[in-house]
Structures are given as structure tokens and as C-alpha cells.
# Entry
Amino acid sequence: MNLDARQVSQWIGRRLAAPASAVVTGPQPLATAILVAVIACAGVVPLVTSAYILQLATDILTFAALAYSWNVISGCTGYLSFGQVSFFGIGAYATSALVLHTGIPWYVAAVIGSAIGGVSAAISGTIMLRLRGIMFALGMLGLARILMVVSSNWDYIGGAAGLTLPAQLTPVAVYLAMWVTVLVAFALNYFVLHSQWGLSVIGVRDDEVAASAVGVPTSWVKIIAFIMSALAPAAVGGLVAWNRSFLDPPSAFDPTLDLQVIVFALFGGIGTLWGPALGTVILVIVGEQFWAYLPDLQLALYGVLIIAVVLAFPGGVVGIANKFGWLRRRPVAAPATFPTVTRPAQPATAGNDAVIEVRDLTVRFGGLVALNSVSLVVKRGEMVSIIGANGAGKTTLFNAITGFVKPNEGGVYYQGKLVSAIPSHQRARQGIARTFQIPRLMESMTVWENTLLAARNGKRAAAAVDQAAWALHTVKLDNRWLELPNKLSPGQQRRLEMARALALDPTVILLDEVMAGMTRDEQGEIRAVLRHFRDLGVAAVAGVEHIISAIADISDRMIVLDRGKKIAEGTPEAVLRDPIVIESYLGKVS
Amino acid sequence: MIVLQLVVNGVLLGGTYILLAQGLNLVFGVMGIVNLAHGSIITVAGLFTYWFVTHTDQSPLWLIPCVFVVMLAAGAVLQRLLLEPLAKLGNRRELLSLMVTFGLSYVIVETALNFFGSQYVSLPNLQETWSIGGLAINEALVAAGVLGGLISGCLHVWLHYTPSGKALLATSQNATGAVTCGIDVRRMRGISFAIGSALAGIAGVLLILILPLSAPTADTLTILSFVIVALGGLGDYKGAVFAGLLLGLVQSGVGYYLGGDVEVIVPYLLLIAFMVLRPQGLGQAAR
Amino acid sequence: MSGGKLHVRGGAFFAPLIAAAVLFAAVAAHAQKPIVIGASISETGPLAVDAAYHLKGIQLGIADANANGGWLGRKLELKLYDDQSNPGTAVRLYTRLITEDKVDLLVGPYSSGISQAVAPLMNKYEHVTPMPGASLPSIFSAGNKWAFQLLPPATGYLDGMLPMTKALGAHKVAILQAQLSFTLACGQARLDQAKALGMDVVYSTTYAMPPPDFSSIALAIKSANPDAVIVCSYYPDAVGLAQALHRIGYAPKFFAETIGPAEDQFVSALGPITNRIISNTSWWPSLKTHDNAGFIARYKAMFHEDPDYHSAATYAAMQVLGAAVKATKSLDQEKLRAWIATHEVETVQGMFKSGPTGLSLGFDQYMFQIQNGKRLLVWPAKDEQAKVQVPYTGQ
# Structure
């Protein structure tokens, strides 16, 4: 046991320098068990020591519940909020007004207050969640300010003078109720981070467009996550108001509360299961001791801490722990080994009915006509390639078929029905799958989870697992199933996108720039997958700019677009000999 | 007459808003990030002006060039140390840059609190009120409005008629394209943050003549500036001129007819309404 | 070895003496064990400037008591925490003072907001506490038994303004209120008073904090053209509104603001437009209250600056506590509470007298006017240093 300091520091240095793999398979019970044990002990201590310790512990729980709630919407869903205190205030007022005006017991009022918080999140979410990024962040801050002014002018809830509440709750009751709230908030985080449904939430954070393309109803997912992030703050608001016996607008909608919560969650690790708890406990307890010597600098040091954590350890405490193999996330619904592929044979889809029909489709962006009255038909199980130079309108065509662009004229029919009014995630669920010009993969999910997210599509959990395994096996990525997408080669990333599309159980897959940037070997692998589509009865529409030879021999038909217009259509041999096509591609041969 | 005076007040207020917002706007346009420390730079410049004037008895206007130069340097350093490391982080950059500038704003505000104290201060300079045809017009507000207009004009000339400005404009429109044209995008980001900070600094020098400032005012100013930038269409400096005037006029009318409570939340209501109804901003509408 | 022997012998010889000395020291130490006064004050954060005056009044009260031999023969000692201007932190710190530090006596924190947050603790733990930072009357409503208001209530801010201006011929008034609990209490009281006096309220509005741009409100005041403008203000809005009136070139005959004009920066910030602005205070250096001159002199000697009304309030709180401890010869909370609730005490701030729910009944409000850069008491007549100057000119 000659472990000298130099070795230890070298080991720590290597660990810190190592790229963090955020996920781990296999059992990791030790760290979790220790954490749970420590928390359980810490939960009992305040009850047997002093009132001051009890108050301190209650404050920690308060902040932990708020940090966990903020983590759902901002950490997991990626919508940074500077105004979650809105729900704290709504809950505080709802609970207080209920007890004062109806006389129901406080614990019932707290539960109803929490529900009212959830309802107000559902209502405000329909408007606020249309905003993105900084707009959402500051829009929420504005919402808190608006609520503060409204409550100041509403006499039923005390107006600006505030409400004085009878001291009903004992500190122990508040403490225990706060524990319940924290556990609920924790459970919601656990659900989001470890359930199949939670993948949709993470998907929205990583890439909202791609999530929608694999069938995630992003608007709903966001609103549900928003509601989840409002429940605990509303309950906490009610408890804090009753604990203090007083409530007024500035204390109900105090923006510095959000500052503290953000600092705690960031320090612990945003979007992680243990980060909010670790950040809160460490900073409140350390802060209590440390700031006593530097009271003037507390908030300035918080600022320095935020900057330092972001620049040096963006993952926070949990991010550092990950590098040592602790507290790593386990991939959702991943068995210990790659599941056996048990997909039943596809039912033979005979017939050559039209799967996709596009009629006189015109799309304009301002003055630019991206698609000019394009019509085409894709039949079941058919392989169609659409060729055209950059700007010919291939991507716009795909976007219009999948619902990401609204056509100005004309319509898109899927299996004979007009789908122009159907949102993109529903088209994906009905069987119109797609890939993107530049692969859009969920960067924080493993290959497995990327596929599983698409495979869910209304299925039961076990069926989704089977479907995902089959899709990955089909594109031959089963040996890399626990990698993160950024570890894959470009060809593998393309195949992962194809697996994701296949996992949707599609009737047609639209492949945008399917061969771009591939080596010859990678092209071969993708050609193999494309050929396989025909066996599965899946129609494929491949957009191609260059490398036409790699796609021509496996295509049934070829369509040529030029500056938004269809200029040729037919078998590959016929089209590639067509003088108009040659002219548009190679220039006029004089 | 009342309506006319309300319009005059609204325009003067709008001029001040334009002054506040253009620095933030430039930073957003080129770097794609919202500098949440913008308001704290304005506030600290204002508090420094107060300190300077009360200690030296000089006119605050002398400070404008000095503060401009100092903040230019400080902005360049801050950008290099705190924001440039984030530039290569892809789509997490937006969130992380918000966090960094959020932290920075606390560092600036709290340090200012320790140095200048928490009390509100303002200066009695340039407080002449002229009566022109029965309309009251205040010197400080005119100065702020003129400076705001001047800055917007200079930005226009610089961005459209000088090589360095054109490079900056190109970067703001398409960073990848700018790289392929041989523009040093990293340098452009540095320049934009430096100039953005310098504009915030001189806004502070004038603002102390208009509003009482104290360290905690910083957040309010950041939000106000952001609302104007957002209303104008993020990064659109002409749109910001319209937005500043619009906000000034609306606040002026609302304050008169509906009272002080509603006036305070006008920026937020406008922000949320516009973001939902017209996310592309005012500037696009005006063209 | 021999040293050891000697030691033993010496120890045996001195043993009785040492024992006696130890016993004496223990008794003396017990007698000397200080009375601990606990308080949490906003030493940092946005309230820090005014809270510093608050703290100095307590410190002077303790120093004065100790110079006169302490209370019950024991020295006084201050156990002080910093709540960082945060009500939640203050709740935690007062809980700590009561349950962990087990201090003998408490003094309330600075500001109505923080007092409001901690007052329920005093009732929960039954700890008698003078509240020198709480002008808000609603803190001392039904159910309160242990907290005592050591300031005149905010409902009395500028209560002389309407009678005084009415006597000078004013009839139309404008009343503005910041959306803060104590300014709203003041505003409502003035609105009621105007009605009672039969005066005409021609304009009234509230505004949220942080204050908006006041140019439109100023214009609305100008359109209503009142004789007197009363603003129940906090500091930044007091400055903002005075500026806004000046910028549209309007000057009402009487112009009064609550918080603001008492501060030195108010005049340096606004310059000559502050001339003839009227404001209120709960304490003034020229008052002939008991030992006021002595208080000012000792305060200057200790802190090398002038006291303000915050320091007078906390000093008065110490005077009330001291009188109660001396009269009851005990630190028993219930005895102290019963005594304070039923006795009047002469303080530098005037006569302390508590109502049944702890609301102050004894202290008076005063009004001063800025006259050529000097602040002079102009109301009530018995304490006035100068006659009120009319009209306010705005320059």
C-alpha cells in the first residue's frame, strides 16, 4: 500500500483530463446506496437536534425541491427559465387563500395549491413554450413580474400589503411536508431521466426538430415537463408562506430565489439526477460556514462560482464524479447485453398502390420559389432517387412531405389521404420517416436510446425494446449500441439515422443526401441497408446531389429537380441519358 | 396639448431606450448571445460617473470618451477570457453563455455594491427644462436621445460603409460564410463584445442624469434593453430604433391613462405578446 | 523529584486558599456573566445603508448601559448576525438566536419587511422583542403579543400635511403610493384623512417598484392641477417623481414625499429643485425629548457622525428594554412583556406607550421642510424650527 501523494494526484489528474463518458452499464449500486443512506441519516438528525438545525434543514429541502423542479424544465427539457418563482408564488397564494377563505386543512390546501400551480403551468405553457432560448428565459422572468403586479392589486389575496397567516404549522410538520415535496420532485426527475417517456423530454432538449421527426409530440412533451416543474414549487410556496405566517408579492415572486436555485443546480450538475441535491446541500452548508467570513462578497462569489463551473466543469459536481466512474447515468431500458433480435417477419405488403403522392406542390420563401408546382408519386416498396444540384429543392420537398414546411399551394397525400394539416410528429408516427441532410442525432443519448426513442411510437415498453434492437441490428450497429453518437464515424451516424427511421415502422423513408461525405466502404454499407428496405416493403426516397452512380443501380426510378422544378422522371438509364438532365448537370455541351 | 406632450415624452424616453439597447444588440447580432451583464455595465458606469462628478466637480460629459475607451479594453478582455472558450461548444453554447454572463452580472453588481454602496444616486447636471411652444423638453433626455440616435447612425455608417464594419455585418449574417471569405470571426466576436460593452458604458454615463441608479438597478436595465432588442428583431439595429420609440410611446400613454402599475409591466406584456405574434421583430415589418 | 515534593508541599499549604479563590472566582464570574442581546441586522445587501444606523443605535445603547454598570449588575453583550437584507435568512437567524444561542433579550431587525417575517417567531417562542425597524402597523395586529413597535406607525407618515395645507388654503390634493406595504398603509391613511377633512382628491395612483419612468404620471398630475401633492414614496421614486415634475415644468403649491428628502444624497442628486419639499420623520435632533442632546453627543463621540432617526429608534428600544429589566429586576420573558405592555417609558424618540397588540401609541410624527439646503422642522407647531415656506417652486 505504497500510495504516495504524487501517484494519487496523477491518478486524479488523469481522471479529470479523461473525456467524460456520461453513461455506464452494469451495476453501480455502491455510490447510490451510500447517497441514499447518507440522505436517510441526514433526514433524521434535524428532528433530534435543535430548532436551528431543523430550520436550516428545512431551508435545504426547500431549495432542493426548487432546484429539482427547475432541473426538469431547464436541465432536462432545455428550456432555461428565469421565472420558475412564478409557480412558487402562485402556490403560496393559492394555498394561503384557500386556508384563509375556506378553512380547509393546510395539507389539503397544499396539495390543491400544487395542483393549481400545475394548471397555471399548463395554461401559461401553451404561450410561453412557443418562445425559445433567451426569449423563454426572459419571458418567464417577465411573467413573474406581471404576476407580482397583479397580486399587488388584488385585494382578495391581500394586495400589496400582504396576507398575515395564523401560525398553524409546527416546524416539524413543515420539515416533514418539505421532505414529501422533495421526494416527489426527485421522483419526477427520476421518471424523466430513467423512463422511456423521459427520452422524449431529453430528445426535445437535444434537438427539437429531430425529436418531432421521430414522432415525439414536442408541444405536449414540453407542456407536461413544464407542469412537472411547477408542481413542487407551488407546494413549496404554500409551505414557506405558512411557515413564515406572512405572504406579500415581493416575497412570493422574488427573482433572487431563482438565482439561488440556478446556482445550486448548476453547481451540482444540470440535467442530472443527483446534481440538484448535491449542489444545494454543499452550497447551503458550506455557504453557511464560509460566507460568515465574507458576507459582503457572497453573491459576487456565487457569480464567480457560476463562471468557474461553466468554464472548467460544465457538468458540475456530478460531471466531476462521472470522471471517477461515480453517479453515471444508466441508459434507459438497456438490458445487460444487447437483446436478442426477435422481430417477426414483416407481413408481405403486396400491391403497388401509391404511398406518397405530391400534387402541384409550390413552396415560396419570400420572393424565392423553392418548389414550383412539383408532382410525384412513390409506390409501396419502391426505391426512388431524387437528384438535383444544391438548391434544387430536394430538402424543401422532403420538409414539405414530412410537415416541417407548409406548402403555399398543392397538397401532400399519404396512402390516399391529404396530410397537409397533420403536424410532423403525427406524420412520422403514421409511417413517414426521414433522415436529415446533416445527421441530427440526440447528442446526450446513446445509440440505443436514440433508436428506442423512435421505436416507442405508441408501443408498450417491451415491444419498443424489441423494435429498437431489430432496427439497430438491421443497420449493423448492434456492437456500438452503448456509444454516444459523437463517437461514431460519419457512415455510422447515417446508419443510426436510418435505424431511427426504421424503428418508426415506416411505410416510406425519405433520405436527405444519403451518400454525402461517405467513403467507398461506407457507401457500400448504406447501399446494403437500402436494398434491405425493399425486402421490408418500405419505400425509400433518396435525395442525392453527387455520387449518382452509387445510387442509380439500386433505384427503381429517378426524378430530377432543377431550381424547384421537376425536369425529368423515369428509369435511371433513361433519365441519365436525357439531354435536358445532362445540360442542367454538366452545362450545355456545345 | 396633453397628447402632444405625451408624444414628446414618449419620443424622449424612446431615445433613452435606444441608447440603452444598441450595445446589447450588437453583441447579439455578431455573437448570437445575450449579454446578461449588459445592465450591470451600464449601472457601474453610471455609479462611477456619480463618484467622478461628486469628487472632481467636472462635467459628466468629459467621461464619455474615457469610459468608451476603458470599456472597449475591458470588453475585449472579458470576451477573450470568459466567452471565447464557449464559442466551440455547439448548441450548448447559448445556455452556457447565458450562465456565464449571468454570473458576470453578479460579480459586477456585487463588487459595485461594496464599492459604491447600495443607495440610489443621481446627478443634478443637465437638468435645464426648455419650454418650446408650451411643450416642456428636458436637456438630459435630449442629450440621451441625441446620443442614442448618433450611436445608431454611426453603427449604420460603420457597418455599411467601412471594411471592418462590413466584415462585422457579414459575420453577424452568416458566420460560416464569413470564415470562407477570410474574415477572422474570432476577432469579430472580440470587437463586437468590446464595442457593445463600450456602448453600455457611455449609456451609463448619461443614464445617471436621467434615472436614480443603484447597483441592484442592473437587472431591470438588462431586461429593458433586451425587451427593446427582442422587439426590434434580435440583432437588428434599425429595428431597435423602432422598438425603443414604440416602447417609449406606449409607456408614456399607458402611464398617463392607466397609471403607474400597468406602466411597469408594459415591457413584459409587449415582449410576450410580440414574441408570440411576431417573432421576427419590428425591423422586418418596417421594411 | 525534590521539585515534585516541594510542589506537593506547596500545594498542601495553599490548598485552602486556592479553593477559596476558585470559589470566589466562580461566584464573581456568575455575577459577571453578561446579559446577551441578540439581533440580526442587514449589514450587507440593499438595506445595508440604513441598517447601519439601526445597528449603531443598539451599540450605543449597550455602551451607555455598560458605562453605568450594566443591568442587574451584569454587563451587556451583543450577539449579532447579518441577514443580508433577506427575510428568509433573518427567520433562520432569529430562530438560531432564540433556540441555539439562547440569548437573554432580542432587538428586532431593520425594515418593515424583515420585521414582518420574524415577528411570528417572537410569538411562537414567546420572546419579548422591541421592533425598532417596523413602521408597518399590520405586523402588530390581533394575535401579536410579544413584539412591540418602537416606531410611530406608517399610517402617521405626513399626517400633518393635509391639516397644515388646508389651513393654508389648499383644497385639491393628489396622492401617490408606491406598491410597498408601508407606503400603501400611509397612502390609504392619507386618502381617508382627505375625505374626513372634506378635501378633494383630484388624482391618485399606485406604482410598482422598481419605479417606472414618471413623466406620464407627472403629466397626469399636471392635468389634475392639485394644490398639494403627497407621495408615499421610497427613495428612488421620490427622486424620480421630483425630477419628472421638474422636466415637464410643473410645480404644485405643496409637495411632500415620505422617504427620500431626509437623505443627504437627495439634495445632492436633485440640486435646487428640492427646495421647499416637505417630508416626515419620527425623530429630530432639535426635539426636547428626554436626554436627546446627550444621546446626540455620545453618538457623535462614538461614531464620529450624526445619528439619524433609525439610530434613535433602536436606542429607544434599548431604553425600553433597560427600563423593563430594571423595574422587574429579572430577565423573565413574561414579566418583561407584562411590564412593557403596561408602562410608559421616556425615550429619546418621545414617550413609548404600547397598544394592546403592541402597536405604538406614544410616538409622534414630525414634518420638516428643505429650506435652502437645510432641513428644518415645520410641524407640529410646538416643535417647529421655522415656518413652512410656500409655494414649492420646483427650482
Notes: Residues 192 and 198 of chain A are 4 Å apart (CA to CA).
